[in-house]
Amino acid sequence: MNDTEELLRAALLKVPSGLAEHVIRVVAEARRLAAIHGVDVHAATIAALGHDLLRAHSDERLLTIAAEQGYELDPADALEPILLHGPLAVPILQERYNVLDGDVLGAVAFHTTANTGMTRLQQVVFIADKIEPHKLERHARVRRVAELAETDLAAAMREYLDYHVRVALESGWPLHSHTVAARNELLATGRTEVTGVPSTVDEARTYSED
Ligand SMILES: [Fe+2]
Ligand SMILES: [Fe+2]
Question: Rounded distance, CA 208 to CA 3, Å?
Fold first, then answer.
């Protein structure tokens, strides 16, 4: 265990026990998925340990930290400041925990909203957070995400984002621009894989009218 890992494990003692237990379950799931998909298990461990560093902060505290960091708010961040607990943890992980790996920092930043260009490590951490055993019970679609994650991280991401968008619409939640962009990217990649060429707008129209 290196210094960063020790510091992050010690930080878990200061957060509510339910949150610490969630983080430990995400670490286990991230390590398991990392091993399956050939991702650096140590990097997955550090990202999972740090992903919810700010999760117990109030909306007011998150908005204060965002202002201090000069972080530009998406309209969805302003409506649901909880979405900020991923990206705002990045400077704190760099400065106080000596996390310098950009891939790990991206995994923490994007675990709340997803984003375009996510690496396999970032997808592993995003999915591990959503399918850890306690969350798996909540919905059949999340169980489907877990099934897909065994063999295809991109398919699992798309399944989760589809589920998330549906729940957001049903619940009146805002959609973060990063979430929409991430899903569009996964859709485009999926179509390119099927047809060999990127889809056109006309194809998209036909698809939506089916
Ligand atoms: Fe989180
Ligand atoms: Fe989490």
Answer: 51
- Rounded to an integer, what distance in angstroms lies between the CA atom of residue 189 and that of residue 138? 29
What is the 120 CA–ligand 1 centroid distance (Å)? Answer: 18
Ligand approaching nearest to the C-alpha of 82: 1
Spelled out in words, what is the top-level CATH class assigned to the domain 3-202? mainly alpha
Confidence band of 203 (pLDDT split at 50, 70, 90) = very low
Closest ligand to the CA of 62: 1
pTM value is: 0.91
Residues lining ion ligand 2 (Cβ < 5 A) are 52, 129
Give the pLDDT confidence of 96-135 residue by residue, as tens digits: 999 999 999 999 999 999 999 999 999 999 999 999 998 8
Closest listed ligand to the CA of 21: 2
Domain ranges for the chain, please list them. Answer: 3-202
Residue 37: closest CA among 156, 128, 150, 158: 150
